[in-house]
Amino acid sequence: MITVWVVLGVSGIVVQLYREKSRPFFPPSPYVMWKQERERRKTNVLDPSHHKPSLSARILGRIRQLTQRTEPAGETTPLLL
């Protein structure tokens, strides 16, 4: 009877190790996952957040837009004056 339990235990361990051989022993920590996600976002040019200008650039652009003089209506090409 003990032999049956030993065989069942060993076969269970072998099957479990075979099924999970490609998995890591422990999942990565949340910090490591956050760093990997941050690096992926930093290098992924298809990510829309990659093309978003920084906060300081957006603020300076908004200030320039508010302080810029408006062009007069009509044609501004010097050749047609």
From TrEMBL:
Keywords: Membrane, Transmembrane
Xref: InterPro entries: TM7SF3 (IPR042502)
GO CC annotations, alphabetized: plasma membrane
One GO biological process term: negative regulation of programmed cell death
Domain of life, source organism: Eukaryota
Record protein name field: Transmembrane 7 superfamily member 3
